[in-house]
Design goal:
Elements lengths: L26 E6 L12 E2 L4 E9 L6 E10 L3 E8 L10 E6 L4 E2 L12 E5 L4 E9 L6 E2 L2 E8 L6 E9 L10 E22 L4 E10 L2 E8 L7 E3 L17 E2 L4 E3 L4 E9 L7 E2 L6 E2 L2 E11 L1
Length: 307
């Protein structure tokens, strides 16, 4: 995974996450961060113990319509989620998500390798599109941190793109969880169409102890995702080129389905969050990492939807 390509030497943690942008004819880089590292704007600074979620607006640099699929996400320490959406109405829709990552800096697909079954996959972007970036940051350290992200979007040959990507962002309903409560929150979505799930992860916060996802079909229920670590959220790539670990409840081994995860009309994806409220207050559905909770299935699909 590309790292430390910019030669930064600032006073802030995370210089090594900076990567160079693609060549202009191969892709573009989305950057959210200060113009001057010696005098950064206040919105990019996070004091010790502070937590905040803000929306940053940028414009894509492509001067013609493009397709992309491979994305590289890099974030300085403290970033909890980074949700990227198109701000323009058009083929991908107003507010359509075009990228997301949770806690960890990663590449998608893994290693930049597009599996044979995904050679026709792509996301369309209009020229000079407005882009909204929702950045949730938390600073558990004892000194000020810098909020900064770099995301590289690599272009696809438009003549090869035959399968548009669809987003899944489905939240399990939850009411207030009282102090000391040990509960399981359940969510579900119904599949329409025929296709496959490209990747998935479970978005949750500090009081979550387990996030599990199943695909149900004709009475058969397959565990496709199980994660235990909310701080470094597991993202699973479902393709013919990636082998995922087999999950195990005893030693809390994370993992899930290996290979192509196909979807058919009539299938149902269900998920559950095991939440133990370790705080002295009620947990509500908020962005607050330690005093709020969420139970959200994030994924990308082609050919099928899960609504």
């Amino acid at each position: 995974m590309a790292m430390n390509e910019c030669g930064l030497h600032t006073k802030f943690a995370g210089d090594e996450y900076c990567i160079l942008p693609p060549p202009p004819d191969k892709g573009f880089q989305l950057h959210v961060g200060p113009a001057d590292y010696d005098n950064p704007e206040a919105k990019y600074l996070l004091a010790a113990g502070e937590e905040t979620t803000d929306t940053f607006t940028v414009t894509s640099s492509n001067d013609k319509e493009v397709y992309f699929y491979y994305r590289q996400y890099r974030m300085r320490p403290g970033a909890h989620h980074n949700i990227i959406s198109s701000g323009n109405a058009g083929d991908i829709g107003l507010g359509q998500r075009i990228g997301t990552v949770n806690s960890l800096s990663e590449d998608y697909p893994k290693g930049g390798i597009i599996a044979p079954e995904n050679t026709g996959v792509g996301i369309k972007m209009k020229p000079k599109s407005g882009i909204n970036v929702s950045l949730h940051s938390i600073n558990p350290s004892q000194k000020t941190e810098l909020r900064e992200i770099w995301v590289n979007f690599w272009y696809r040959n438009p003549e090869e793109v035959t399968e548009p990507v669809k987003e899944v962002f489905a939240a399990a309903p939850m009411a207030g969880i009282p102090p000391g409560a040990d509960v399981v929150i359940n969510g579900s979505c119904a599949v329409t169409g025929t296709g496959r799930m490209l990747w998935a992860y479970g978005h949750r916060h500090a009081n979550n102890t387990r996030f599990s996802v199943w695909r149900s079909r004709a009475g058969k229920k397959d565990l496709v995702y199980q994660g235990y670590n909310w701080e470094e959220t597991l993202v699973l790539d479902y393709s013919s080129t990636v082998k995922n670990a087999v999950p195990d409840t005893a030693p809390n081994v994370e993992g899930g389905w290996t290979g192509i995860l196909d979807m058919q009309s009539g299938d149902q994806f269900t998920w559950e969050c095991h939440i133990v409220n370790k705080t002295t207050g009620t947990l509500n559905f908020t962005n607050n990492t330690f005093t709020g909770e969420m139970c959200i299935l994030d994924a990308e699909t082609v050919g099928a939807s899960c609504n």
